[in-house]
Amino acid sequence: MDFILRFNRALAQRRHEEIIDDHVDINEQPMLKSPLIMEKQMAVIYTRKIFYKFQKDLWKCLACVLQLAREDDNLCFYKVMERKKDGSFKLKVQEVMVDKVADYASCICKKFEFEGILCRSSLCKDAENISPNINNPSVK
């Protein structure tokens, strides 16, 4: 009987925490660090907690260098190297495959498939497209 009471209290506490998190997600906008359109779109799509994970990878992708490894008619393979603060590169190199026909990118880490968040390597492929466009009226 004691177990059932403790379990019900824990369950009620968890429900209460979820209600508070839902209220915050619905009524408050997360802090944006830039005028990037992608960042603004993801702030609407993701919950606050997931958005901040995405935002961290978005900023880390700006320190990545993209290098075309090989290409054929439908696919491009890129090597993505991340810069350290001292300017050198990390030893771990990620590979991103881009399907030109399906307009789809996939990294070997499979973060999007597992967590639903694009990794910094996949975001790096679109870095030229996510730079701020001050003259774009859709950026507020």
UniProtKB/TrEMBL annotation:
Entry superkingdom: Eukaryota
Principal place of residence: nucleus
Compartment(s) of residence: Nucleus
InterPro entries noted in UniProt: FHY3/FAR1
Keyword annotations from UniProtKB, A to Z: Metal-binding, Nucleus, Zinc, Zinc-finger
Signal peptide (UniProt feature, chain positions): none
Functional note: Putative transcription activator involved in regulating light control of development.
PANTHER family for this protein: PROTEIN FAR1-RELATED SEQUENCE, PROTEIN FAR1-RELATED SEQUENCE 10-RELATED
Protein family per UniProt: Belongs to the FHY3/FAR1 family.
Protein name as annotated: Protein FAR1-RELATED SEQUENCE
Gene: LOC107881826
